[in-house]
Specification:
This protein is an alpha+beta fold. It has a six-stranded mixed beta sheet. The longest helix has 20 residues.
Length: about 130
């Protein structure tokens, strides 16, 4: 399969914006990093996320109790085309003091819909 450098750059920029918005707890900016509906598969549960579903209560989840911020450890393109990119990732969650909560492998599918690059699906080993 051929690769698409322009799509890959747009998908990586989307993931950068996703992490920045999540760490800032900026739900409006965070929501802009998705193409809805979006799917999240984690803890052996599939969740369909629609626009407006993600609120500040997102940060009340038990898995984020001690969480302060996250960072990408690796992001490797698996496949890319004109309107979709598959990315193998690993991110780490950190406490405020810099201590590691955990690192989690994930696959992100970033799509271009109506000219907007956003996360369409993700499958993660994070809780």
């Amino acid at each position: 399969m051929s690769r698409n450098a322009q799509s890959e750059a747009a998908a990586m920029a989307c993931l950068d914006a996703f992490m920045t918005a999540f760490n800032a707890r900026d739900m409006k900016a965070f929501e802009q990093t998705f193409n809805f509906p979006s799917i999240r598969l984690a803890s052996n549960t599939m969740r369909i996320i629609n626009k407006g579903d993600q609120t500040p209560a997102t940060f009340d989840h038990a898995s984020l109790k001690d969480w302060d911020h996250s960072a990408w450890e690796t992001r490797e393109i698996i496949h890319s085309g004109a309107d979709k990119v598959h990315i193998n990732t690993r991110f780490t969650r950190y406490r405020k003091d810099g201590g590691v909560i955990g690192g989690f492998d994930s696959i992100y599918v970033v799509t271009c819909e109506d000219g907007h690059w956003g996360i369409k699906a993700r499958s993660s080993f994070a809780p």
